[in-house]
Amino acid sequence: MKKIGIYLLILIIVCFIMPTLLTKRGIEVIASNENELENNIKTQENSNENQDDIFNMSATYEYKKYGTIKLLHKDTSQVEEVPIDEYLCHVVSAEMPVDFELEALKAQAIVARTYTIYKIENKKHEEADICDDSTCCQAWISKEDRLARWEENKRESNWEKIQKAVTQTTGLIITYENAPINAFFHSNSGGTTEIPVNVWGGTGYPYLQSVETSGEEAYTQYLSEVTFTNEELLNKLKVTHPETAIDFANNEDIKILEYTESKRVKTIKFGNIEISGTEARTILGLRSTNFEITKENGTIKFSVKGYGHGVGMSQTGADSLAKQGKTASEIIHHFYTDVEIKEVNEL
Fold first, then answer.
1. What is the C-alpha to C-alpha distance for residues 53 and 68, in angstroms, rounded to an integer?
2. What is the pLDDT of residue 204?
3. Which residues, given as ranges, of the chain have pLDDT below 50?
4. Which residue range forms the structural domain that includes residue 203?
5. How many angstroms separate the CA atoms of 53 and 51, rounded?
6. pTM, rounded to two decimals
């Protein structure tokens, strides 16, 4: 009887109690897994929401100052009030090719915003903050004209890319000692940027130093040539310097006398006159002051490297760095020395 009682007890445990325990444990395990899955989903959702918030914040950035600017249209002499980031979309699309890397376009947007605010703080126009003339301020193009110059099937995506470059950097500017820098930029440095004192004189800016950038030779802006006959060259020089006299048979009468640290022409001799490389560039319509001279059969050839004054950020250099994996921030710190990228509201 005792043995039968033991067997019955074992049978009850096996048939009734253990399944109950196992079922309870199974429910706990399932519940635990479900909770873990739910937590993972919530974490992912929060991560996505946070990421969305970053873009939403940038798209709805509230400028405490500079949110609206007065833009002077030089052709019509009309002044238009426009949101700064809307204005910058027109500037970036005018200043940099849309097929450049997004990080290069973002760097251009930050540079253009900084340049705009610098112009506002150092007012040049009486009734406006800035104008749309690239020889005075920075280039600007209407959306209608910009779209018309792009292939029809790329217009929408191209404009969205420009807007992305601006909105993802909204509010950001480059500062030196907590003030907006004079953010010069140009097309192609020829491999090395120039310091401003060699272009415009004065004392220069500490954040605009000469830096080297690899990869710029891959762009069409890197090399150009201009050729004049002896007579054409002399006539061009006489417009500004009517006293010019050149003995073209004398190899010493056309000669580069001095170079800058970045190997641009600092001083050049044309017969009885000596002028700066920057003046020679202007008079002769050269793309930069980084040039060499070759005399051949009654002609003078100028072989030019780079495009623009060479100060500040090189746009092709920015694109080259972006292709190497550099971010907009890294690009800016490459071209501008000892600067910070800050929100304009922090000024």
1. 24
2. 84
3. 1-4, 8, 11-14, 16-17, 19-57
4. 68-217+310-346
5. 5
6. 0.81
